[in-house]
Fold this sequence. Notes:
This protein has one helix spanning 117-145, and strands at residues 12-26, 35-39, 45-49, 54-55, 58-59, 62-83, 92-97, 108-109, 113-114. The chain is an alpha+beta fold. A five-stranded antiparallel β-sheet has the order 8-7-6-1-9. Strands 2-3 form a two-stranded antiparallel sheet. A hairpin with a 2-residue loop joins β4 (54-55) and β5. It binds zinc ion (ZN).
Amino acid sequence: xxxxxxxxxxxxxxxxxxxxxxxxxxxxxxxxxxxxxxxxxxxxxxxxxxxxxxxxxxxxxxxxxxxxxxxxxxxxxxxxxxxxxxxxxxxxxxxxxxxxxxxxxxxxxxxxxxxxxxxxxxxxxxxxxxxxxxxxxxxxxxxxxxxxxxxxxxxx
Length: 156
Ligand SMILES: [Zn+2]
């Protein structure tokens, strides 16, 4: 049997994925200015710190939000895993990398690993869009159904 894999042991690769992450967005009330200009009924003008984006002592001009962000990393292949079995078209390729654990750690499916940074970033961005769209559809469905439903677990 002659097994070919996309990557070899010791190869440097780029991983690309869309991750659900905490992000920041501009404060909707002060529009990032961190303060409001206030005019009292008597006509006195002063500035006050924006209460919406205040964190501890000061206003930051931004508020926390969640969303999918493209995440790419430079990794080194430390283990190549190939599975070939009946009922499987082609072969299942997985890799373990020094930066994310070899032996125990994360198994990267071949679809998440790339030769170049550009390919990884392009994939990561597309995955963010795909996941955001999927989430949107699921939330819309939840709103309509008003109930939870069971779905078969799917990897990826
Ligand atoms: Zn603000």
